[in-house]
């Protein structure tokens, strides 16, 4: 079996999906790099972008907390969200990262300082240091601009793109990918969390060339406005279409039946369990890992420990 502590893992994504998985991955390795999309333009992050001209701190904050060696009062403080006054809707962590960016004059220095405060395992990096926005072309040819609007798309999404299109990757991201032994994509909103990272040409090319084991963790549920009716094959096809068919070696899918009491609220929002066909996925050139990945909480999402344990078992990590 392979000793796990110093296995180099790169996890790529954004939103709650990436941070959720990081809670489990930090028990596999001390050397994790979270690569986070910077296309977020909604909520607290959107307001701070407008007021301070910084990259969005929200997803980065969530990943920092997830990678903290211990869940302490400081972790809770980073996640605390104000519910009144002029700072209503802002989280303390977002404000702290913004303040650190103002003090140091550098967003990356702010992330490093926040990482030190939380004593995290590994590091959190934005996929690019360039300001970008997200645009989507819907199936009828209509175009929508802005990540927060795309998430509420009234019609199926055909393609997405970054504006500007040819932005450079953060150099540290490429270095981490080159050293990685495992590269993990997802889970998370396909069009607004996972794909924006792969639209950065240097990142896709680095993943293509990597000798790492490349795993896509497929979503458990479809997402209304983004992936209505999508199967696991559909998710994978969009990844290949927007990047390359050489960025995934394995796809992880949940094979647990979701209890009726959990699924009811999702069905009312027209979200359904993601179906998959092993043969169909294998014909797309990937190997399939079927496992119980489900968290039995009040939300239908991945269980961080189950995902981590599945990776440990399938790849003989100690």
Could you explain how this protein is built, in words?
The chain is of the alpha/beta class and 318 residues long. The protein starts with 7 loop residues before the first strand and ends with a helix. Strands 3-2-1-7-8-9-10 form a 7-stranded parallel beta sheet, with helices on both faces. A 3-stranded antiparallel beta sheet has the order 5-4-6. It has a two-stranded antiparallel ribbon with strand order 11-12. Helix 1 packs parallel to helix 3, helix 1 crosses helix 14 (304-314) and helix 2 (43-52) packs parallel to helix 5 (92-104). The protein folds into 2 domains: 8-38 and 127-314, Rossmann fold; 41-124, no CATH class. It is globular. The chain is built from 14 helices and 12 strands. The longest helix is centred in the N-terminal third of the chain and has 13 residues, at 92-104.
Radius of gyration: 19 Å
Strand content: 15-25%
Structural class: alpha/beta
Helix content: 40-55%
The CATH class label of the largest domain is Alpha Beta
What do we call the CATH homologous superfamily of the largest domain? CofD-like domains
Mean model confidence by pLDDT: 94
Order of helices and strands, N to C?
EHEHHHHHEEEHEHEHHEHEHHEEEH
Ordered list of secondary-structure elements with their pairings:
Elements: E1 8-13, H1 15-25, E2 31-36, H2 43-52, H3 58-66, H4 73-79, H5 92-104, H6 107-118, E3 123-126, E4 133-138, E5 143-145, H7 147-150, E6 157-163, H8 171-179, E7 182-185, H9 190-198, H10 201-209, E8 213-217, H11 232-242, E9 250-254, H12 260-268, H13 278-283, E10 287-291, E11 294-296, E12 300-302, H14 304-314
Parallel strand pairs: 1-2, 1-7, 2-3, 7-8, 8-9, 9-10
Antiparallel strand pairs: 4-5, 4-6, 11-12
Helix pairs in contact: 1-3, 1-14, 2-5, 5-6, 8-10
């Amino acid at each position: 079996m392979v000793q796990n502590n110093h296995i180099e893992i790169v996890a790529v994504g954004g939103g709650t999906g990436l941070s959720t998985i990081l809670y489990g991955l930090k028990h596999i390795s001390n050397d994790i790099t979270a690569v986070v999309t910077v296309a977020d333009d909604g909520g607290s992050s959107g307001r701070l972008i407008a007021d301070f001209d910084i990259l969005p701190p929200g997803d980065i904050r969530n990943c920092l907390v997830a990678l903290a060696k211990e869940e302490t009062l400081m972790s809770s403080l980073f996640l605390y969200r104000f519910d009144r006054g002029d700072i209503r809707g802002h989280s303390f962590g977002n404000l702290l990262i913004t303040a650190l960016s103002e003090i140091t004059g550098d967003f990356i220095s702010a992330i490093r300082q926040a990482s030190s405060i939380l004593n995290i395992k590994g590091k959190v990096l934005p996929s690019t240091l360039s300001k970008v926005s997200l645009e989507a072309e819907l199936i009828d040819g209509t175009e929508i601009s802005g990540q927060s609007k795309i998430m509420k798309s009234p019609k199926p999404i055909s393609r997405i793109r970054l504006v500007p299109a040819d932005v450079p990757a953060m150099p540290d991201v490429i270095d981490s990918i080159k050293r990685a032994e495992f590269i993990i994509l997802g889970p998370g909103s396909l069009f607004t969390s996972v794909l924006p990272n792969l639209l950065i040409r240097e990142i896709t090319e680095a993943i293509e060339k990597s000798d790492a084991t490349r795993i896509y963790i497929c979503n458990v549920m479809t997402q209304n406005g983004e992936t209505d009716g999508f199967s696991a094959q559909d998710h994978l096809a969009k990844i290949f279409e927007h990047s390359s068919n050489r960025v995934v070696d394995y796809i992880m899918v949940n094979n647990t039946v979701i209890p009726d009491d959990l699924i009811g609220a999702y069905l009312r929002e027209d979200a359904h369990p993601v179906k998959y066909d092993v043969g169909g996925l294998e014909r797309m050139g990937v190997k399939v890992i079927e496992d119980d990945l489900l968290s039995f909480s009040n939300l239908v999402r991945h269980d961080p420990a189950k995902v981590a344990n599945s990776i440990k078992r399938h790849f003989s990590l100690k």
